[in-house]
Amino acid sequence: GKATFTPVVSIEGWTYGEDANTPVVTNNLGGGAETFSYSVAGTNNFTATVPSNAGNYTVKATIAESDNYQSAEATADFTISKAVFTPTVTLQGWAFGAEPNSPVVTGNISNGQVTFTYKAAGSTEFAAAVPTAAGTHTVKATIAATDNYESAEATATFSIGKATFTPVVSIEGWTYGE
Question: Model pTM?
Answer without folding.
Answer: 0.84
